[in-house]
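Hi support team,

I'm opening this ticket because the web form for multi-chain structure prediction keeps timing out on my end. I have pasted the exact lines I submitted so you can reproduce it. The total is 1108 residues across three entries, so I didn't expect it to be a heavy job. Is there a limit I'm missing, or should I split the entries? Thanks in advance, R.K.
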Amino acid sequence: MNPETTPRTGFLTRSQLVGIALLALLIVVLLPLTLDIFRLNLVGKYLTYAFVAIGLVMCWGYGGILSLGQGIFFGLGGYCMAMFLKLEASSVENTKIQSTPGIPDFMDWNQLTALPWFWKPFASFPFTLVAVILVPTLFAFIIGTAMFRRRVGGVYFGIITQAIAAILTILIIGQQGYTGGINGITDLRTLHGWDIRTDHAKFILYFVNAALLFGVIGLCFLVRQSKLGRILVAMRDKEDRVRFSGYDVASFKIFVFAFAAALSAIGGAMFTLQVGFMSPSFVGIVPSVEMVIYTAVGGRLSILGAVYGTLLVNFAKTTFSESFPELWLLGLGGLFIAVVLAFPAGLAGIYDSHIAPRLAKWFSRKGRTPTPAMPVSTPAE
Amino acid sequence: MPKDPTSGPVDQTRRRLLMGAAALPLAGLLPKSVLAAPATAAVNTTGLAVTDTEVTVGILHSVTGTMAISETGSVQAEKLAIEQINAMGGVLGRKIKFIQEDGASDWPTFAEKAKKLLVNDKCASVFGCWTSASRKAVLPVFEQYNGMLYYPTFYEGLEQSKNVIYTGQEATQQIIAGLDWVNKTKNAKTFYLLGSDYIWPRTSNKIARKHIEKYLKGCKVVGEEYFPLGHTQFNSVINKIKLTKPDVIYAIIVGGSNVAFYKQLKAAGIDLSKQTLLTISVTEDEIDGIGGENIAGAFACMKYFQSLDNANNKAFVAAFKKMWGDKTVIGDVTQAAYLGPWLWKATVEKAGSFDIDKVAAASPDVEFKGAPEGYVKIHPNHHLWSKTRVGKAKLDGQFELIYETADLVEPDPFPKGYQ
Amino acid sequence: MFDSYSISELGSIFVMQGFAGLILFSVYLLMALGLAIIFGQMGVINMAHGEFMILGAYVTYFTSQAFQHFLPALFPAYFFVAMALAFVASGTLGMIVEWGLIRHLYKRPLDTLLATWGLSLILQQVYRSVFGPREVGVELPAWMMGSLKLTDTIEVQINGLFVMTLTVIITAVVAVMMFRSRWGMQVRAVVLNRMMASAVGINTERVDRLTFGIGCGIAGVAGSAFTMIGSTGPTAGQLYIVDTFLVVVFGGAQSLIGTILSALSISQTQSTLEFFLSGSIAKVITLLGVVGILMLRPQGLFTLKVRR
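Hello R.K., no limit was hit. The queue was backed up. Here is the completed structure from your submission:
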């Protein structure tokens, strides 16, 4: 937490580099070597949630803004990608049994006879890539501007984001001719002719996802180390003082909220690619709150911790619900309470207080750089 | 499509069912099969989880989350069917072993678990899914990894797959005969369509509207409305119904909203013995929550009622209650779920193999004479031929059979003229 | 749509529609009261509020079963017993939760949100394991069913009247307790300045526990009343939580009058819109309106003047 006091290489401290390297070792080498493609694809799916969790570290842990509606942005990103893939899957040859060939099947079932105008640009891949990021970010920008300019914060913000998530879910489900309704946009097949359903494609997508994830992690470290990051922390701790020092607090909040939204959107788009569909069940309140718990488990101040937290909770979910389905909700509920009551700093906190000191001792016993005064910094941070 | 509602329904079923019952091998009635089982290599050429003594199948429903309410009955029925089949000696001399997975009312989880059942567990078939959304989520998985899914719920149609057998009704099977009946016997001319806001009610109401406006003479729809899932306030729409005075309220409201809707309808003084209400979304299961006194007098259009008076059904109800307790009720979907394992067994035996391709190819015209609903047969489009029945809800939460189609209704998942 | 109706028919429809709005108002207010106390007075976000309501509903269900079996003669009156029991049950659970969970988190409001969300998941699963996953139907005594015919065309639902009366009574009791009783004074003192309150000898811990318990108890009564109009199942509570929070926030968290007025405006808007539009769209427009106004006036309709 005190980057200045440890040796630096570039913008990262050595222990942060070690932490990133360890995570990379796990995600890029260990997991692909040990897991079959089915499990690896699952991990890939979990890692898309990690984008959201990292976004929450930035906006909740550092900015102090708890959003209970990150599913909105995850979903919007995912839907943008799904619209592109669906259009590709609904070529005229593929859909000749429909009364209007060439439009997505669910539109045909709802008596639409032409593609709605807002679907049309999604035939272009470059446009889609831009939209994946831009649509959710703009939406977040609008929400953020409206709220933060009027100094809405804390729990009010949480409740309003939750309400927006609820509204969006009802809208998507209700407008099924345009959105696929509750079933979502399903049966996505190819990306520019490349079949995304094969094992080979899943394998490649996993690495694309991992690469993006590390890109995002790097970006977050950069933001955090910058002056911007320090202002964010200052703002979280004493908003008034920052304001009195002449900073425009609202702008920083809007920025970090929109930034987190953009990260979530990348996760959503990668989710669609790897899972092969998108549905309104990722937009609602329940998934949004669940994503907060990933961050809380990992440690709300730890960027790398968010990734570990996401992986851990989802592994637990899959394992538990395979063997004790009835107990799973109890476990998840207990996790929420335990994290809040006993481990407010999450996994990263446990690492800091229990593992890191021992590691430090162990290193110093080896006689390398015996600097007992060096404050312990954590790779999981 | 049969349109004559006046033929004596009950007599006819009974006759047919008694004929069927003679050949019916229900649990424990026959001595255990001692036929030598065919060699595993011959019946399983694609590496499914089949050994000399066992075959593995999957059960994939939600036991947690909001859908657990509805899906519990299906799980129970499938387990009962599997137990009965095992008591008779299993399938091709092999006992059925099932692996149960929880979809947790979450569609990606369904897809994930479906993949696990097919890829990791190599299940020879899977019985499961309930909502359309969960089926849509698993469908690409079943098609990609070539699995076999037996799907029990009545649904909106517009789908057909080599890898799915739909043991529930598609929309036209549930809707058209019921509307014809209510038009004839109740002389109904005006209809008010209600539904929860998602694909099944919307598609069903679309078919209902087309049928009312195109095929029923002088009939019209006077209102059509949708409510978010879980909506609990219906007083405004009830006022609108009072204002428009429709001959028939056609309600496709699901889940917890149902309870609120019927309670408020009753409280608002709409007497279901005078106001005709036809629903395709309320089975005995739902009445458990709604309370018989709130819905007595309403008509439901289904293919099965627990009260059906035939030998198959009596044996089924008795076995079900013995296994799961006296207080359990059996709804339409529960019965359709019960058909799954039996149809699969019949198909595998017809094909002489567990291979998915052979089972899929052998499915058309597979019959099941022991079905509690009466005789059913698989159509080449992988849906079932079955009857449409109208029941009247009674105070005790059971339905009284009022009408049934004379013949089996042909499944038509892509109905021409209703698009 | 009004072409073919006479003036008197239209008049009665508007009366009944107004009545429908009033029922919705009572429902919203009843849900929001408990939350207004807990959130408004203590600043605690109780995401498990819906589950406390469902506990009340289950208590009502079991009371009705018990009366049917053991005291069929008294069945018409069971509902009053059930409401009292629901208050006690939910209130007790609330106090236990306060003691075990909430009191550690008074300084971290966002964390109470997460912890109570976890609590709601646990309660849902407990209900599911103990009471079964299916919905249960609560049978009402005959006198509560049906409607009163005021004129030939105007009918009002008896259970609607019952809910409205109940809401009025509970609101009045809460108001009296808040502004006239010793407890109310202590609560307000603790809200304004915890340190000073404890310095003048108020047992703040006890006040907190009691306040939380009373808020949850009122949720239980609300749940009990809801068995008349809604469904009772393990996850039914989740349906209400967003609506309820919006009512409280929209009204301005610390103001009882605000909560009442916000419930009134939201319910009238929604029920009027529902009459002219489809249910889904009406809901979306209402929620959007509330969120929109909150963005313009984040402190809610009525609020204590606090400069942040």
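A quick check on our side: Chain B touches chain C through 46 residues (CB under 8 Å). Let us know if the file doesn't open in your viewer.
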